[in-house]
Amino acid sequence: MSAKTLYEKLVESHTIRELDNEGHVLLYIDRSILNEYTSPQAFSGLRERGRTVRHPDTFLLNIDHVNPTRSQRDVLMTDPGGQLQVDYFRENAADFGITLFDVLDPRQGIEHVVAHEQGLVMPGMVIAAGDSHTTTYGAFGALGFGIGTSEIEHLLATQTLVYRKLKTMRVSVQGELPFACSAKDIVLELLERIGADGATGYAIEFVGEAISALSVEGRMTLCNMAVEAGARGAIIAPDKKVFDYIYGKPQMPVGELWQQALLEWSQLSSDADAVFDKTVAINCHDLEPKVTWGISPDQTGSITGRVPFPEQETNPLKRLARTANSSGK
């Protein structure tokens, strides 16, 4: 049996069947967290076609895109469009029997935080949601990726998606993070090197001693921001730090089921001789705190560096673009 990356193992374990010779598979999805902003048309499509939600218990509806942050936000929503989305979201939850974290529900919050707070994200899962930063869940050894509204409708009705397998990128981060540097500096360094589209078509796996030393929240930052490089997936093999973090969360298994889960989760890693399509190496010894200076996340540099001068660019069109970028236009 050939060696496999962790990404390849997760996709393979959730593949119902191969659809063609170009990497398309029918993929089973374990979980989805939906928000009021990207899901309304999906529910409308279900109604129009007379379809039901196949497994309502695998979905969570969470209001987090349009609700105000002020107190009494349930009655002081001044945006009529936002209020309409919230009202329709509540109707969808009731009609299709899906749990809703409403505006004043103490469990409500940013969906990518709510999901792990409630123990909805477990190692080895495949999770799809209507937000590109669903890659965040890779910090827990899960494969997460964003999908569009038509795909949400298909997922609601079938619990599956047509999925094209990605290429794999190994990002090895060695050494100890210097003072004042954080996970965000690692990912900005990656962006500066490969560009805002350098990981398009790839799933990234972060490895190395610097990654192991990060907190779970730091790992979430890495996986969240990998999408800024174009990645459709980002993942870190789960370890004891992750297992301790998720232990006791509301939806986590308990007792003997927890022990059984740990045995399986502990096996989630890339094979030692797995081959990646691309490899990037970052040495933390050379890392400094980083800032972005333009309008793209790959327009970044060290805090001790300089914003590039437009006149250094010989191409007049690129020089104009650089001038506009450094002016924040």
UniProtKB/TrEMBL annotation:
Reactions that this protein is recorded to catalyse: (2R,3S)-3-isopropylmalate = (2S)-2-isopropylmalate
Pathway(s): Amino-acid biosynthesis; L-leucine biosynthesis; L-leucine from 3-methyl-2-oxobutanoate: step 2/4
Cofactor: [4Fe-4S] cluster
InterPro entries in alphabetical order: Acnase/IPM_dHydase_lsu_aba_1/3, Acoase/IPM_deHydtase_lsu_aba, Aconitase_4Fe-4S_dom, IPM_dehydratase_rel_enz
Gene3D superfamilies, sorted: Aconitase, domain 3 (3.30.499.10)
Any one GO molecular function term: 3-isopropylmalate dehydratase activity
UniProt keyword annotations, A-Z: 4Fe-4S, Amino-acid biosynthesis, Branched-chain amino acid biosynthesis, Iron, Iron-sulfur, Leucine biosynthesis, Lyase, Metal-binding
Aconitase/3-isopropylmalate dehydratase large subunit alpha/beta/alpha domain segment(s): 8-315
Annotated EC: 4.2.1.33
Pfam families, per database record: Aconitase
Region ranges (Disordered): 296-329
GO terms for biological process, alphabetical: L-leucine biosynthetic process
Quaternary structure (record): Heterodimer of LeuC and LeuD.
Known function: Catalyzes the isomerization between 2-isopropylmalate and 3-isopropylmalate, via the formation of 2-isopropylmaleate.
Protein name: 3-isopropylmalate dehydratase
Species this protein is from: Salmonella enterica subsp. enterica serovar Adelaide str. A4-669
